[in-house]
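User: Structure with magnesium ion, tokens only please.
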Amino acid sequence: MARRALIVSGSAGPQDIANSVLQRFGFAPAESALNIAEATARLRTDKFDLVIIALQGVSAMELATLDRETRRQGTFVIGTAMQSDSDLILRAMRSGVNEFLLYPPDPKDFSGAVDRLMRRTHAEGKSGSAIAIYSAKGGVGGTSVALNLSFALARAHPEGNLALVDLVAGGGDLRVMLDLKPQYDMSDLVGKIDRLDAELVRSLLTPVSGGVWVLPSSEHPEAADLLDAGTVATILAHLKQYHAFTVIDCEHAMNDRTVAALDAADRVILVTQLNVPALRSTQRTLALCQRLGYGDEKVQVVVNRHQSSDTVSLADGAEVLGREIFFKIPNDDRTSAGALTRGVSVAEFDPQSHLAWSYEGLAGRMNGGLSEKAGTPPTSRLGKLFGRRRK
Ligand SMILES: Nc1ncnc2c1ncn2[C@@H]1O[C@H](COP(=O)(O)OP(=O)(O)OP(=O)(O)O)[C@@H](O)[C@H]1O
Ligand SMILES: [Mg+2]
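Assistant:
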């Protein structure tokens, strides 16, 4: 879902310039209000991410009422004025105006201000958290979990931003499962590591209705060779700056790239099923996670396609793994396949299904852990663990 801005007439300069700045930060064309009173009234019934007002001639009372509404909604306010009168600026800042710009706003200053505000969207100055979805075995439902968890998190945290990254290099499934025709994908980021910044990464994401911003993988198999651990770590670090949650669909191969993603993640969800081959593979992954130095609280096991006819019970599964089963997702072929065929999330396909509730429940367990932890350098950690470099 695009962000929404409300501009009080005559406060932000030419409309096309304002819109071209806002568009870079994921805003839809701005809506306008005649004056601050109308803007305040709109905020009572409508949600906006940003309001731009002209400060000159606005009374303290008007600012205070606007402040009440913007605080309630978590809306940011940019104030503009013809002169940088320090009294006026101070009064505005005290009434909840977040940024001040000279009128007419210079596009560079304007985008700087929007950038600062959007970085604060999910948490004042803190980095969001990344959740890596991993399974060593294919077909157990990793991509389904990544996709549906993203939409559930976006719904539960409308105040934050949500990024969904396809790290399955050279042909991941998210593009198909969300029926995307993206303008950009991972191939637009590889080989540009020196030029990457949070704004550039964000501007290459594809917004999907439901508030999820997707970075699809490249369709070209050769792109896989170009995507190295350093690039993965850099991209994820930038995404975490902007997004309350960054959900990563990891590839099954445990290579340097995958380790970089798991390292960058605040939480790793190991998707498995209650059958012997899947549990064996999860057991090996848990051992590897331990050797990678991840604490038990970072790595959680999620059982997918759970049903009473499973050959192994939940309790036995937990015993085999030596770990509590963090969450179980029911088996539901009809809903899962239906959503996939329509290219939408399960919640959009059938919001009342147990499967949709279950993904929502999983999202509820992902407390918005906001960390300031710096990622460890990922390059060749695997090489050290195994005494050789694996690709
Ligand atoms: N809870 C579920 N109930 C029923 N079917 C499911 C469930 N979760 C996933 N599936 C189905 O299982 C199949 C594989 O799912 P998905 O692509 O998410 O797995 P994956 O682990 O990412 O596989 P891949 O190895 O291709 O990456 C899909 O057809 C999907 O619809
Ligand atoms: Mg997959």
